[in-house]
Amino acid sequence: MEQSSDQEISSPSKLEIHVSKKSRFLLWIWFLMTISIFIIIIFFIIFIRIQSVFFVLDDKPNIETTIISQRSTRATRVKLMSTEMITSKPSNISRVIPCNPLKFSKYSSYSTGRTPWSLSSGHLDEDPYLDIVVVFRSIATFRLYYGIGNGTFQPEKEYGNYPYPVYVAVKDINHDNKSDIIIPFLGIETIGIFINRGSRSFSSIEKHYTGYYQIDYYPYWIDISDFNHNSLLDAVVVNGHDASVTIFYDYSNSNFTYTKIYPTGHDCIAVSIADFDNDTYKDFAVTDYSDNTISVYINDKNGFFKRRKKYQAGVAPWGMTTADLNNDQFADIIVANHGSSIVSVLFNDGQGHFYKRDTYYIGGRPMPVAVADLNNDSFMDIIASNYKDNFIYIFLNNQDGTFLPYQTFQTDPEILAIITGDFNLDGKIDIAVTSEGKDTLNILLNLC
């Protein structure tokens, strides 16, 4: 009986041993699986790292895409710097800027009428030299200065006797291959058009009224383009006292077909046309002097404009121009701020929005601002003045949309207007300004 009892006890013991072996086997399988998963994870991480290294090494297209699509945000600048550091490129690349410092001739001076408020250039006769038109606010006339070679000009007789011309544009408005003269006259609420008849002669004034119902619109600044793609030119003029712009559509046979008025900020002064959203339809922007803003108007692809978008400028923004400053194919906005002694640069994000703003101090009371590639490096530079002294201030582009410290060049005092052009046909961009302090036209020839 005892023996049988022993056998009964030994049987369960074998079962336990069998179960124990099975458990150890399962435990071993679990351990191998865990190790395998861990090895796979390590391999996957190594693979990702290797792929990222190859991606960064071939990063040039990606850097360019980042610059084009998101340059306007601070986060993008950090991302771009980080990418450059990974690829062993310094974040502050040392560039060789051509013709730095700039070189200009001593300015030549031509007498004008009192208060030479604005000027513009174009080919007003049959020779290849650029000519200049200057309007005089105090004596209600304008004068032509014909280029005669070597950057020199021949003053001609004054035209008109219409109250208070404040701005002038030169454009072939009737498509006859001759540049015409377009002037807002604030005293008679009129855009005056003078058609070029050739041989240095012009038609009598065509009057196109900017306002209705005897409102004192105070037309000030004008720009011209084709907003609706019908090959007929349109004009946009700011109405300073009405806080609006009037757009004249489809000039043909000495008339515009219709007009439309859009609201702006208070005491608007300047207008500049550009294609801000790259849809081939022209948009425009306006400086709102009393609101310290600029207003941007985007074309709806029918020649009409969406509700304005406001962006902060400096104090009392006055003059304005547009250009692609960082070569990202998007038009940026440059503003001279009369009340804060600075020039503002507002960068386009590619969709017609302007959220990034840089400022450059020049002092005094800035009024006009212009842009041109002065050192022939394919980047646009900025020219401004502060009215309180007798210099122009030039900011050379650092070849990335930022600008080097300004360089100054002497002129007559109290600069009211600035334009640029190749006045002596040497392939270099020259500068012309008007001085209220001396009632003169100054020409500075580029020697770079």
From TrEMBL:
<keyword id="KW-0812">Transmembrane</keyword>
<dbReference type="InterPro" id="IPR013517">
    <property type="entry name" value="FG-GAP"/>
</dbReference>
<dbReference type="InterPro" id="IPR028994">
    <property type="entry name" value="Integrin_alpha_N"/>
</dbReference>
<keyword id="KW-0472">Membrane</keyword>
<dbReference type="Pfam" id="PF13517">
    <property type="entry name" value="FG-GAP_3"/>
</dbReference>
<keyword id="KW-1133">Transmembrane helix</keyword>
<keyword id="KW-0732">Signal</keyword>
<feature type="transmembrane region" description="Helical">
    <location>
        <begin position="25"/>
        <end position="48"/>
    </location>
</feature>
<protein>
    <recommendedName>
        <fullName>VCBS repeat-containing protein</fullName>
    </recommendedName>
</protein>
